[in-house]
Amino acid sequence: MIKGKHRREGKVKKESFMQGVLSLMVAQVLIKLLGLIYKWYLTNREGFGDEGNAIYSAGFSIYALLLTLSSTGVPNAVAKLVSEHTAKGDYRGAHRIFKISLATFAIIGLIGTLILFLGAGYISNVWLAIPEAELTLVALSPAIFFVAIISVFRGYFNGRENMKATANSQTLEQLAKTIFTVLVVEIVAICSGVNTNLMAAGANLATTLATVASFLYLYMYFKVRRVELGKEIVSSVNYPTKSILGTVKNILMVSIPMSLSSILTSLNRNIDSMTVKRGLQSFLTQGEALKQYGILSGKVDTLVSLPLSFNIAFATALVPAIASAKTKGDMHTANKRVSFSLLVTMLIGLPCMIGMMIFAQPILNLLFPNASEGAFIFQVSSLTIIFTVLEQTVNGALQGLGKIYIPAIALTIGVAVKFILNLILVPIPWIGAAGAAFATVACHAIAFIIGFYVLKKSMKIDLPFTKFIVKPFLATFIMAVCSYAVYLLLGGINASKVVTIIAILVAVIMYSLSIIVLKLFTKEELLMIPYGNKLYKLLERIGIYREGANPAK
Question: Is 16 exposed, middle or buried (0-12, 13-18, 19+ CB in 10 A)?
Answer without folding.
Answer: middle
